[in-house]
Amino acid sequence: MDFEKLELRKAGLDLVNPFETSNWRIETREVLILCGKKNGEWVYGETSVLPDPVYNHESTQTAQEFIKKYVIPAVKDSNSVEDYWNNISYLKGHPHAKSSGDQLLHHRQSVNQEKSLKDIINGAGDVAECGVSLGVTDEDKIVEKVQGYLDQGYKRIKLKIKPGKDIGYVRKVRKHFPDVDLMADANSAYSLSHKDRLKKLDSFDLQMIEQPLSHDDLVNHSVLNNYIDTPICLDESIHSAEDVKRASRIDACSIVNLKPQRVGGIKESVKINQACKEEDMKMWMGGVIESGIGASTQIILSSLSEIKFPGDIGASSRYFEEDIVNPEIKVNNGQIKIPDNPGLTNSVDRGKLKEKTMEKWTF
């Protein structure tokens, strides 16, 4: 596509509170923003990997180099999303990095056609239902934090857990909130040897337990799924629509967490929705603490037909001291309206983006 200018910016957004899971902790969220200018108008894509390869094999540094070396040339040589994937699909892995080009070109398509992204993906829903994810925190503070988010209208609570900070942790929340929709996320912190410990979570009436075992282990998830009663949701193990079919074939899970960047962007997300429909699996929208640019993609994809649970989509103020979109994303009564306008759900504030830019490359 004949962009007048392409930029890659690494931006740092200060978090309101540090965020911690079973294997990582961050205080500032570094994101990579791919920017394209054509006819005086900017369009965007985002890559929100972690500084170190602890969620998957990608890191901020690897994604940054992959985007510069491969994504930028592929975008330059593409007149459509389909062209982009024809140009870049021969390269193995790096879905987060690849997703920046996919999002940018979807954004451009929406603007060019004066058609909302929701209509382009054949989305059906009008609102994104919002839950909240609580990082591993002190047990004596957890009840107060949960109450605070329920008071803000969030419709589901997700607790990050790890061995030693799980049974008592979940029990305390369930005791104080017997009727709240509650789930646990293990981020691959357990092995099959923990199956009896995980079985104890059955007594807490959880909606699901997310990714209890290794990121690359469908087989043992199948064993665990037939041992515990709590439904298993897979996150890190699902990279494509074909992975959904494989997981279904061996009964490894009944729910899929859709993180658009984990699967390469919007195009594959739509395929995964169709696979979930065919395999009778439920789906919900995950997140990796994206800026308002990446969150726009989450919000729009929440209109897909197989999204059945509130997603990890929070207000900008839930995570950031200041976001890079204007207006910032807001949650009202646990929902975000999915707009019908072309482009992103919220406009990018170029001034704030420049202010938070740590490094910039122009192409």
TrEMBL record:
Enzyme Commission no: 4.2.1.113
SUPFAM superfamilies membership: Enolase C-terminal domain-like, Enolase N-terminal domain-like
One Gene Ontology term from the biological process aspect of the record: menaquinone biosynthetic process
GO molecular function: metal ion binding; O-succinylbenzoate synthase activity
Pfam short name (any one): MR_MLE_C
Keywords of this entry: Lyase, Magnesium, Metal-binding
Cofactor: a divalent metal cation
Limits of the Mandelate racemase/muconate lactonizing enzyme C-terminal domain: 139-231
Entries under NCBIfam families matching the protein: menC_lowGC_arch (TIGR01928)
PANTHER family, sorted: O-SUCCINYLBENZOATE SYNTHASE (PTHR48073:SF5), O-SUCCINYLBENZOATE SYNTHASE-RELATED (PTHR48073)
Name of the featured protein: o-succinylbenzoate synthase
Annotated source species: Candidatus Nanohalobium constans
Organism placement in taxonomy: Archaea, Candidatus Nanohalarchaeota, Candidatus Nanohalobia, Candidatus Nanohalobiales, Candidatus Nanohalobiaceae
